Amino acid sequence: MDHLKETRLDGETAFDGKFLKVERDRIRLPDGAITHREFIRHPGAVVILPLLPDGRILLERQFRYPNDRVFVEFPAGKIDPGEDHLACAKRELEEETGYTAKDWQFVCTIHNAIAYSDEHLELFLARDLTAGQAKLDEGEFLETFTVTLSEMLDMVRRGEITDVKTIIGTFWLEKILSGSWTPAQAG
């Protein structure tokens, strides 16, 4: 695979924000040509696929400013520096929804914007949920609701769910609930 590798020569931070950084690197292509790559550095995030005891799936509606609309999503959140991924998933589920889970399984890692970001998302299945009080961050506004897997698949099919992490998580849930895929035990 070395014949495909691009090599960083040097670079700079083009933008350094509170949450994201934009890097601009000068690179050598596999054929020796020199060019630039601009990309976003992202700390990574977790995504929780919360399955209620009755088989319904817990989702959120949240306004996303860059696209100026409300999206339907799985609960998710940024991994803090040095934070264990499972600990982050547990924290985010409780903060955003009030729910805690007794059973956690690691599902997969996805890279959702490989052409312009190093962001990775760690997906976890959460079962045996217990309701509690949400602890939203200051400035965070969302609402939760539940659907069946069939309803969720229809929402994807109709274009009501367009968020990539939620679509991928939905298809994983379909495989897990059918028994054809089994995620690993977490923690």
UniProtKB/TrEMBL annotation:
Identify the SUPFAM superfamilies for this entry: Nudix (SSF55811)
MF terms in GO: hydrolase activity
* One Pfam family here: NUDIX
InterPro entries on file? NUDIX_hydrolase-like_dom_sf (IPR015797), NUDIX_hydrolase_CS (IPR020084), NUDIX_hydrolase_dom (IPR000086)
Q: Which UniProt keywords apply?
A: Hydrolase
Q: Which cofactor does it need?
A: Mg(2+)
The Nudix hydrolase domain extends over 40-169
Reaction equations catalysed:
GDP-alpha-D-mannose + H2O = alpha-D-mannose 1-phosphate + GMP + 2 H(+)
Q: Which family does it belong to?
A: Belongs to the Nudix hydrolase family. NudK subfamily.
- Name of the protein described by the UniProt record: GDP-mannose pyrophosphatase
